[in-house]
């Protein structure tokens, strides 16, 4: 038994092609892997909190990102029983056009199906795993939903090892029909809590939305690696002030890296998010 609430976050708010993307383009025709994405506004971050924290989290989240234009969607789960395996380890939920086609496409792309498709009151669900151990739920609705497009598309933040990064990117690109828009082998280490160091950062965009892969050796201080999503806002200082007033804690104070000002925030119930603004 669980309580689930899908919330639309409301807020004001050339590309460098990698070798993996080139290999995808050259060897994976679209006909082999059908496109199944619907749109980033239908992709949700999965947030698991104790039942007693659901209302506090929802209130804090909405107070932080209040407004009229969605910049991210979350699905909130407050289980009253122990969480069944492997639920709770998936990061996001992707709406697909056809569940059976999506499962076939995921397997063809090298993903594993951890939970075979099962019915829910409004459609069907499944859980897949990408190379490198990244879990994602995919879902389909009997009656197609209709959400307003995002003004600022959030990023799915994935941490992965160097050994599995190529396999992950190849698999994800084939399934999502996306492209690598940036691949920086020496991204600033301050972005992962290691000022003065560098790491590899891969940014991917597709109809599912944005995904950033952080390729690291796993030596990360808290809270890096714990956050699931990065949310873009127009004014970081104002958003952080709203977050604090709504009971959230700033774990990493704002810092500048390239064209982005970023911070890490802990919401009531334990959900950690990166929040950023871009530009000068």
Give the SSE map.
Elements: E1 2-10, H1 19-27, E2 44-48, H2 54-64, E3 70-79, E4 92-95, H3 99-108, E5 112-120, E6 123-130, E7 134-141, E8 155-160, H4 162-176, E9 179-188, E10 198-206, E11 209-215, E12 229-232, H5 236-245, E13 249-257, E14 260-266, E15 272-278
Provide structural commentary.
- The protein is of the alpha+beta class.
- It has a single domain, classed as Roll (2,3-Dihydroxybiphenyl 1,2-Dioxygenase, domain 1), CATH 3.10.180.10.
- Helices cover about 20% and strands about 40% of the residues.
- The strands form two sheets. Strands 9-10-11-8-12-15-14-13 form an eight-stranded mixed β-sheet.
- α1 crosses α4 (about 160-175) and α2 runs antiparallel to α5 (about 235-245).
At the fold tier of CATH, the topology name is: 2,3-Dihydroxybiphenyl 1,2-Dioxygenase, domain 1
Q: Give the total of domains.
A: 1
- Category from helices, strands and their pairing: alpha+beta
Uncertain parts: 1-31
Number of strands: 15
Radius of gyration: 18 Å
- The CATH class turns out to be Alpha Beta
End-to-end C-alpha gap:
47 Å
| Number of alpha- plus pi-helical segments | 5
Query: How large is the share of residues in beta strands?
Result: 35-45%
Which range best describes the helical content: under 10%, 10-25%, 25-40%, 40-55%, 55-70% or over 70%? 10-25%
Order of helices and strands: EHEHEEHEEEEHEEEEHEEE
Biggest β-sheet: count, sense, barrel?
A: 8 strands, mixed
Label the CATH architecture.
Roll
The CATH superfamily is 2,3-Dihydroxybiphenyl 1,2-Dioxygenase, domain 1
State the shape.
globular
Average pLDDT, rounded to a whole number, is: 89
Strands in their spatial order, largest beta sheet: 9-10-11-8-12-15-14-13
């Amino acid at each position: 038994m669980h309580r689930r609430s899908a919330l639309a976050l409301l807020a004001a708010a050339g590309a460098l092609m990698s070798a993996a993307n080139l290999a995808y383009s050259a060897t994976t025709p679209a006909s082999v892997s059908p496109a199944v994405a619907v749109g980033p506004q239908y992709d949700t971050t999965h947030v698991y909190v104790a039942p007693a924290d659901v209302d506090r989290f929802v209130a804090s989240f909405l107070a932080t990102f209040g407004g009229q234009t969605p910049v991210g969607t979350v699905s909130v789960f407050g289980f009253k029983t122990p969480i069944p395996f492997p639920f709770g380890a998936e990061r996001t939920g992707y709406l697909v056009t056809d569940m059976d086609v999506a499962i076939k496409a995921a397997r063809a792309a090298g993903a594993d199906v951890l939970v075979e498709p099962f019915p829910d009151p409004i459609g069907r669900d499944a859980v897949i795993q990408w190379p490198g151990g990244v879990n994602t739920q995919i879902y389909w609705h009997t009656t197609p939903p209709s959400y307003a497009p995002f003004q600022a598309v959030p990023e799915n933040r994935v941490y992965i090892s160097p050994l599995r990064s190529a396999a992950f990117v190849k698999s994800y690109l084939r399934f999502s029909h996306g492209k690598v828009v940036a691949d920086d082998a020496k991204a600033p280490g301050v972005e992962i809590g290691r000022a003065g160091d560098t790491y590899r950062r891969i940014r991917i965009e597709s109809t599912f939305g944005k995904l950033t892969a952080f390729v690291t050796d796993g030596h990360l201080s808290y809270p890096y690696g714990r956050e699931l999503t990065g949310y873009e806002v127009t004014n970081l200082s104002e958003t952080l002030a709203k977050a604090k007033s709504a009971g959230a804690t700033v774990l990493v104070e704002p810092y500048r890296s390239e064209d982005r000002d970023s911070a890490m925030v802990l919401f009531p119930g334990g959900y950690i998010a990166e929040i950023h603004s871009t530009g000068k």
